[in-house]
Amino acid sequence: MFNTRMVTFWLQKDGSHPHEWEDGAMGDVGDVGRGRNPRFVLADGATEAYDAIRWVDHLVTSFTDQDGDAPELDPPSMLRWFTAVQQAWVAAAPQTFGTIFEEHAFADGSFATLLGCEIRDADGPAPWWRAVALGDTVLFHVRRGALLVHFPPLAPDDFGLHPDGVDTRPAALPLMMQQLTSANHGLQSDDELFLATDALAEWILRTRQLEGDGRVWDFLSHLSHPDVFAQFVADSRVAGVMKNDDVTLMRILVSESDPELVVVCL
Amino acid sequence: MYDHTFSRQNPGCIVILLDRSESMGLPWRSSGMTLADGAARAINRLLFDLCIKATKEVGGAVRDYFHVLVLGYGARPMEGGEGVESAFGGRLAGRGIIPLSELAGAPLAIREEPSVDAMAATTKMPIWVEPVYGYRTPMCEAIAVAGGHVFEWVEDHPESFPPIVINITDGLVTDSPYEGAELAEWAKRLETVETLDGPTLLFNVFLSSEGEPAFFPTSGHHFPDPGPQLFDMSSPLPAPMVRNAQAAGVAVLPGARAMCFNADLEALVKFLEIGTRAAELPGR
């Protein structure tokens, strides 16, 4: 029997307040005995978009609501889910808008990248993950300190200003379905999955190119306090090796063993 | 250079120089508008879009991701006669570079306007700049006045993306040399105003009734006068804007300058959008 343990680190962009962090992260370690698989999701709201915080929050909450709207990770189910979350966005529209800018901003809609994954067969001998992605939030699968695979398989120069993503506008559905990608990979005990939004994902890929796996995974695997993460991000921004963006890292350990200790950050 | 993002802590600065000389009363291609009408509509649309993008939440104020100013040159409806003055009216008259939230709170009017895109016949638009034309074309003085404003602004915002100055004109400069310097020299002086992220960028939009439209050209010799001179004055397009242009479906060759020639209204709006998107708002 494999269990999963998850921790999330995040930092808002420099110049913003913590409550203006526009990424979203949510995990459900599941209850395999009751048929609920572990499921994890990251979303990265577009800063130019209206009310990205609410859109991202809605996406990650719905994606992990396995007793409710959570989709199966196949195209027909994802299409139904995209439609449902778009309808929920419209249903939550304000009755009146305070300004003409707000009215137009709502009409322009919101937008977020999405990376969701589920761990399957965790109660069997050969667990595996399945993931879906729209955009440049990336899953890294690491085994014994080395990267096995990353998804979507982006290169460092692929992180641009106009990634794919989940749009609030129904007219964008065909394009979203065309851009939606998925992947699977087998898991072994003590494998780690790292889900990272674009600024950190780009840093990971560039640092691997320059310094190899050791520097990256040794550091990220042993991160244990949000202040250390915040300092690392701040230092990287100052050094010009990480762009000034909201940054989120979710680390998931898949293991047959129980935790040796529990860390509580106060 | 040119990779800082726009934020409230380090906002962007956009200064538009709007030719209000007599010749701006000529028809704009086959649009049925004058050049002055079209330029004012494009500027109002740009300012509106900036306010929309800076509106982030239900009930929230427009965020000050940008500071803006529009300077008219030629006719001066406020002070009278010929010269340079802020094109903003009402509460904003006579002000220098202002935060976007102040702009958002003080349009001259909100009107039903023909839509720039094909999605809607009309749309409600805030109006900050009215079409005005008359007198000659004191472009040197306009660049000199803009230089004074951006110099002060840069002192207060040394870590911001550099100021973006966009000159929209249809004609030949009439005040060169001004205070002993030719137009090209004033443009060079403007580009000496720098933040830590690079020199001020100068865009030129040349509205003309002859010749094929051109976006971000790599040569200016085939344009009618003063096209070659405007080309030489225009900044090389920095890498983030090259990426924005390419993402918007505009081909950009190496050596491209920040210039637009003989655009129609839709193309002009697109050009302004590319030129002011720069290194993006933080995040996207």
Structure overview:
- The complex is a heterodimer of chains A (266) and B (284).
- Chain A has 7 helices and 11 strands.
- Chain A has 266 residues and is an alpha+beta fold.
- Chain A has a single domain, classed as Phosphatase 2c, domain 1, CATH 3.60.40.
- The model of chain A has no long low-confidence stretch (mean pLDDT 92).
- Chain B has 284 residues and is α/β, with parallel strands linked by helices.
- Chain B has a single domain, classed as Rossmann fold, CATH 3.40.50.
- Chain B is 28% helix and 21% strand.
- Chain B contains 7 helices and 12 strands.
- In chain B, strands 1, 2, 3, 4, 7, 10, 11 and 12 form an 8-stranded mixed sheet that branches. A two-stranded antiparallel sheet of chain B has the order 5-6.
- In chain B, β5 (109-114) and β6 (122-127) form a beta hairpin.
- The radius of gyration of chain B is 17 Å and the shape is globular.
- The two termini of chain B are 18 Å apart.
- Work out the helicity level of chain B: 25-40%
Total separate domains of chain A: 1
CATH superfamily of chain A: PPM-type phosphatase domain
- The CATH architecture term of chain A is 4-Layer Sandwich
DSSP summary: helix tally of chain B: 7
Shape of chain A: globular
**What number is the mean pLDDT of chain B?**
89
How much of the sequence of chain A is in beta strands? Answer: 25-35%
- CATH class of chain B, named Alpha Beta
Largest β sheet strand count, sense and barrel closure of chain B: 8 strands, mixed
Task: Please tell me the CATH architecture of chain B by its name.
Answer: 3-Layer(aba) Sandwich
Q: Over the alpha carbons, how many angstroms does the gyration radius of chain B reach?
A: 17 Å
N-to-C series of helices and strands of chain A = EEEHHHEEEEEHEEHHHE
- Strands of chain A, total number: 11
- Number of spatially distinct domains of chain B: 1
Order of helices and strands of chain B: EHEEEHEEHEHEEEEHHEH
